[in-house]
Specification:
Layout: H1 3-23, E1 25-29, H2 32-42, E2 46-50, H3 65-72, E3 76-79, H4 89-96, E4 108-110, H5 146-161, H6 166-191, E5 198-201, H7 207-213, E6 216-220, H8 231-244, E7 248-252, H9 258-267, E8 270-274, H10 284-302
Parallel strand pairs: 1-2, 1-3, 3-4, 5-6, 5-7, 7-8
Amino acid sequence: MSIQRFLTFCAVALAIAPLAAQAKVRIVVTVTDLGAIAQEVAGDNGAVTVLARPTQDPHFVDARPNLMIDLNRADALVLIGADLEVGWLPVLLRGARNEKILSGQPGYIDASSFVPLKEVPTAKIERSMGDIHPSGNPHITTDPTNAPLIARGLAERLATIDVANAAVYRANAEKFAAATNARIATWKAALAPYKGTPAITYHRSWIYFTDFAGLEEAGTVEPKPGIPPNAKHVADLIALIRVRHIPLVLQESWYGSATSEIVARETGAKLVVVPGMAREGQPYLEHIDEVVKATVAALASKKT
Ligand SMILES: [Zn+2]
């Protein structure tokens, strides 16, 4: 294509874009959990695009240029925040040149601002020291009680971006909250027999889930968030699991499971590998249901 034809193509594309935006609010989210929640809230009024694949560790996503195109066209950006996406989202935002979704604008929607954040350090932690949770624990969507808070916060923001449909967004959020609360009652009942059970996780990403589930996060395979396991740490962890009879090692499928398999084999703990985020197109509540069921099945198999 000649440069003139390309520029003409761009001009036509830009002329069409506002018409399309009127039809649906273009919502770009960083991860599938947020995509699933955003779709519940936006309903037919929103078109949701997810930047990270559900199989990617959301701390480390390739900043591919095509993601800038999605961001360039967005009316709203929903991110987890708390530095989860700090390694890749800022560069995409700079490339996207879309003022509507810059920090401080109504279209920049930070989900971590809607929930009580856990493990916020009292002293400053430098990311350069290796810990990738310097602003608190960003894995907020592993606790389903956070989902209605995120949905309601998102509905209020969409209500300011698309005023005509404000009532729809709020009603959708309440419907999702009610559905979530109904499932929470079922999950709590299934988890109740294991209250107080210690568990090991690979990354310190399940703290919201373990608190919800009534489990104790007794240790992690990674010595620090983002630091790969080493022999000394793994030996200490195996000793801890043996002494405390810890029955469960839980991890996301985006991490290699070789170390966790060794830990499980050496101790007899049950290794559970689950998707860390909703699968593509999977409703959020179905994803949590999968995690709860896998956890309960493992704990039930270990109960003596
Ligand atoms: Zn993390």
